[in-house]
Design goal:
By secondary structure, this protein is an all-alpha fold. The protein contains four helices and no strands. The protein has one domain. Helix content is 87%, strand content 0%.
């Protein structure tokens, strides 16, 4: 029963994030809400969906070359740690 309640609550939080994203078009708020869903309900479908929506926002607002450059820099950072 507790698991069902958590899923229902996760769904409500995800719906609020989705509304901020697509309804109000407030991407900053949507990012925060999606991150909150991921933090509070990590093992739910809503968490996975939130990750996908965050990736959609990132691709929509960050120029492609800037994203690529950041990924390359991140790879170098991780390679240098080993």
């Amino acid at each position: 029963m507790r698991h069902e309640a958590a899923l229902t609550e996760a769904g409500r939080h995800y719906a609020a994030a989705h509304e901020a994203h697509y309804g109000a078009k407030n991407l900053r708020e949507a990012l925060e809400l999606y991150k909150g869903v991921m933090a509070a309900y990590p093992e739910t479908r809503e968490s996975a969906d939130s990750r996908s929506q965050i990736e959609n926002i990132v691709r929509a607002v960050v120029p492609r070359q800037e994203l690529f450059d950041a990924e390359v820099k991140l790879a170098y950072t991780h390679l240098n740690e080993g």
